Amino acid sequence: MANHKSAEKRARQTVKKTERNRFYRTRLKNITKAVREAAENKDKTKADDALKLANKSIHAMVSRGFLKKQTAARRVSRLALLVNKIA
Predict the structure, then answer these.
(1) Could you tell me the pTM of the whole model?
(2) Which H or E run contains 26?
(3) What is the rounded CA–CA span in Å between residue 67 and residue 45?
């Protein structure tokens, strides 16, 4: 365990950040999974709705500092390609 005051604070911050990151990581997986499942079932309307939600959520994660801008763009792009193959 931490012995210095600053190290104790660091430990507290790490716990908070870990919980926050776990939440966003899980949310990102679930959002992506929803788009992929809709595309797999060839459900164009459901896939489009899921993609819109994914785009909004993923870019919101960028503004919160969870993802880098280019990483978010790449993920959204790949999901869009998947959805566009349905049509």
Answers:
(1) 0.84
(2) helix 5-40
(3) 27
